[in-house]
């Protein structure tokens, strides 16, 4: 039996164990992603992205409206900022 004070700590520990590491992308994959984002920006077409999260990935389909290469970020039409890499 777990007392309520320990239950919260135990739940947090179990959740922390499920964390995933950030995926490693090789140069070819990074260039492919960059090209798809640039194409979306230039042609105003939607692109579907898998957005990394520590526990599970989120998916977003949107049009790239701005690209900030120095910060490795893109702005989507729904005014969401996404870090790339």
Any descriptors?
85 residues, alpha+beta, four-stranded antiparallel beta sheet, 4 strands, elongated
Explain this structure to me?
- There is one protein chain.
- By secondary structure, the protein is α+β, with helices and mostly antiparallel strands.
- Helix content is 36%, strand content 28%.
- It contains 2 helices and 4 strands; from the N terminus they run H-H-E-E-E-E.
- A 4-stranded antiparallel β-sheet has the order 1-2-3-4.
Helix-and-strand structural type: alpha+beta
Total strands:
4
Rounded radius of gyration (Å) = 18 Å
In round numbers, the mean pLDDT is 81
- The neighbouring-strand order within the major sheet is 1-2-3-4
Report the helical percentage: 25-40%
Give the uncertain stretches in residue-range form: none
Major beta-sheet overview: 4 strands, antiparallel
Explain briefly what this protein structure is.
This protein is an alpha+beta fold. It is built from 2 helices and 4 strands.
Topology overview:
Blueprint: H1 4-17, H2 27-43, E1 46-51, E2 58-68, E3 73-76, E4 81-83
Antiparallel strand pairs: 1-2, 2-3, 3-4
């Amino acid at each position: 039996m777990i007392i309520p004070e320990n239950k919260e700590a135990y739940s947090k520990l179990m959740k922390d164990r499920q964390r995933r590491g950030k995926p490693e992308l090789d140069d070819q994959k990074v260039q492919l992603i960059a090209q798809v984002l640039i194409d979306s920006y230039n042609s105003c077409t939607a692109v579907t992205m898998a957005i990394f999260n520590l526990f599970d990935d989120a998916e977003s389909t949107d049009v790239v409206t701005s690209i900030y290469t120095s910060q490795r970020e893109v702005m989507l039409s729904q005014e969401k900022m996404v870090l790339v890499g």
